[in-house]
């Protein structure tokens, strides 16, 4: 893996403290070049600081642990780790190691001696394990260990990953994780609370844990790097023979901002009860017949749509006039891969496709349908709201998708369309080998629009960067415009770690950096504030040509730049902005303010 090193300073006798910051970007197992067991590999960015001043930067710092493997590491850790037993006093706060013990290790190390029989191979319903685990820490607020009692309550925290596959493979511009992640953030603490109460302990046979349905509402977006706190409460439960049904309510918040709420219910089922599941009754006939194979096309490619692990659909047929309401329909199909990543993650000893990925499959089908109906191009980085805020939606599960199935199909029908706000409200059906197992209702897909408007108290305008920038201003400005550190870094032509250092006051903000921030800010805001943050434009701007009477169109900028034989990088250097920003403007993906247009035209004239 190519790495790069930049040195812009030194450690001398006058330096009082040298420090290193290493930001892990990716941890994975990769096979060696000559073949063999995949070995652990780490990829990172690093900065060396001399008295808090960055002097050395390493991009793509990478390490490989030769001769090791995932199985070898588990064996080594198992030999070296002493048996951990909880103290006599009941544990109330559970950290990540204890949560992982409940996901794939020895359950007694998480929940105490009463779970010791599951350490030796007896089946226990587990939490999801990496990379589909979305609890970093959980605290029991009400209730006792091993006691199934309404009112039991827990508070979980998960810090949304700022970079990596959650965002990088999701598709679309919107800096928020896919809906499946938000759904799991809310539901996984319910699974922990069910285990904590000892729900499976009264049964002599294995009991599998499954979500059965719920109703929820997205209230606001959550961005990368934010901590989400989820409060779950056990409401009621009932036992029907070899089945146990439990109901929960949940609320998720980022800081003081509510982002997701609803209620849900789960079931504990014996293997025999799971085998008897017959899917959703009397529902298949209400949907159109399966389309002919020749009408299916490959699911859309492009920056607007998911890739990698988030790409859940292979083929799709779209009808803009289909469905019971004649407003549009979709039929999507994918083969079930027994080796898919989510079977290993969900769950240990009990592989089953997460229900949240079934909901995400419906949303992905809805995105393709919305792009067709509203005339959006897959080549553009679209801004999705899926599901749109303040729109309640429901799901009902009466079956499962396991590695034994051959194919999974999703049927979607538009029940309501709002062309003015570009919103589609969908109902859906998911089939496993043609057996309907999931029903989904009221999922609203928004295209190129912000959150549904609500009455809110008027806020003062976000601070505008100027020559006297502070780290707080950059942070507030970025969050006000819902940009991740990575997105802002790409616009400025720097690395995300530099944005992080500036926002924490660990890096001085030069005048050139402030100028770039001003240019990006004006393009985002559409306003024309003075670049220096004063009431008057700086002297070097007074002599420049007046702003054009009309907006500078992307194709005009591209044509004028090429006519002068200039590269994007050369024009960006003359204009004092990043080449990435020039590229976004020429592709019509960044709004051009009069001040920025004036600046770019002046640079073009100066380079003629």
Polypeptide structure, described:
The chain is an alpha+beta fold. Helix content is 26%, strand content 27%. The protein has 17 helices and 19 strands. The protein has a 15-stranded antiparallel sheet that branches. The chain has a 4-stranded antiparallel sheet with strand order 1-4-3-2, with no helix packed on it. Helix 15 (568-575) crosses helix 16 and helix 15 packs across helix 17. The longest helix has 19 residues, at 355-373.
Main features:
alpha+beta, 608 residues, four-stranded antiparallel beta sheet
How would you sum up the major sheet? 15 strands, antiparallel
Number of helices: 17
Stretches where pLDDT is under 50 for at least 5 consecutive residues are: 80-84, 449-467, 524-550
Global shape: globular
Radius of gyration: 27 Å
How much of the sequence is in beta strands? 25-35%
Described by its quaternary structure, the protein is single chain
User: Helix/strand-derived class?
Assistant: alpha+beta
Mean pLDDT equals: 83
Termini separation comes to: 41 Å
């Amino acid at each position: 893996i190519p790495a790069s090193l930049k040195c812009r300073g030194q450690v001398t006798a006058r330096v009082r403290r040298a420090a290193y910051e290493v930001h892990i970007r990716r941890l994975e197992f990769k096979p060696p070049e000559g073949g063999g067991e995949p070995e652990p590999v780490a990829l990172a960015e690093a900065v060396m600081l001399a008295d808090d001043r960055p002097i050395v930067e390493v991009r793509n710092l990478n390490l490989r642990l030769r001769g090791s493997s995932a199985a070898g590491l588990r064996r080594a850790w198992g030999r070296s780790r002493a048996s951990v037993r909880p103290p006599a006093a009941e544990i109330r706060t559970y950290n990540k190691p204890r949560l992982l013990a409940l996901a794939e290790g020895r359950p007694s190390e998480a929940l105490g001696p009463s779970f010791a029989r599951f350490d030796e191979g007896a089946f226990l319903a587990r939490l999801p394990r990496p990379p589909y685990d979305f609890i970093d820490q959980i605290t029991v607020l009400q209730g006792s260990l091993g006691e199934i009692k309404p009112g039991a309550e827990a508070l979980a925290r998960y810090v949304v990953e700022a970079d990596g596959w959650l965002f990088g493979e999701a598709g679309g511009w919107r800096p928020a994780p896919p809906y499946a992640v938000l759904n799991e953030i809310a539901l996984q603490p319910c699974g922990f609370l069910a285990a904590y109460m000892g729900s499976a302990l009264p049964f002599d046979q294995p009991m599998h844990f499954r979500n059965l349905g719920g109703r929820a509402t997205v209230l606001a977006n959550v961005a990368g790097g934010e901590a989400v706190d989820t409060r779950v409460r056990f409401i009621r439960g009932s036992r029907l023979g070899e089945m146990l049904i439990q109901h929960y309510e949940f609320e998720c918040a980022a800081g003081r901002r509510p982002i997701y709420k609803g209620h849900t219910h789960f079931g504990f089922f014996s293997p025999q009860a799971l085998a008897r599941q017959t899917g959703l009754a009397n529902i298949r006939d209400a949907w159109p017949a399966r389309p002919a194979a020749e009408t299916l096309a490959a699911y859309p490619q492009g920056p607007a749509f998911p890739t990698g692990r988030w790409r859940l659909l292979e083929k799709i047929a779209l009808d803009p006039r289909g469905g019971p309401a004649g407003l549009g329909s979709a039929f999507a199909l994918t083969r079930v891969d027994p080796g898919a990543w989510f079977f290993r993650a969900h769950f240990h000893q009990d592989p089953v496709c997460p229900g949240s990925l079934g909901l995400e499959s419906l949303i992905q089908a809805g995105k393709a349908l919305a792009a067709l109906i509203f005339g959006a191009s897959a080549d553009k980085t679209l801004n999705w709201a899926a599901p749109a805020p303040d729109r309640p939606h429901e799901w009902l599960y009466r079956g499962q998708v396991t590695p034994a199935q051959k194919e999974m199909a999703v049927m979607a029908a538009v029940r309501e369309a709002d062309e003015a706000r570009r919103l589609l409200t969908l109902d859906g059906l998911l089939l496993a080998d043609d057996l309907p197992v999931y029903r989904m209702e009221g999922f609203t897909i928004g295209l190129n629009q912000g959150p549904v408007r609500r009455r809110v108290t008027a806020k003062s305008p976000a601070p505008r960067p100027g020559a006297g920038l502070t780290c707080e201003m950059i942070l507030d400005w970025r969050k006000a415009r819902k940009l991740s550190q990575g997105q802002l870094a790409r616009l400025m032509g720097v690395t995300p770690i530099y944005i992080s250092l500036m926002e924490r006051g660990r890096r001085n903000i030069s005048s050139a950096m402030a100028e770039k921030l001003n240019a990006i800010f004006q393009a985002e805001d559409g306003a024309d504030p003075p670049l220096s943050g004063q009431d008057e434009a700086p002297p070097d701007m007074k002599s420049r040509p007046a702003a054009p009477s009309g907006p500078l169109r992307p194709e005009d900028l591209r044509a004028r730049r090429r006519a002068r034989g200039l590269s994007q990088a050369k024009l960006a250097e003359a204009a004092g902005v990043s080449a990435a920003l020039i590229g976004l403007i020429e592709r019509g993906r960044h709004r051009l303010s009069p001040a920025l247009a004036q600046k770019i035209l002046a640079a073009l004239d100066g380079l003629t």
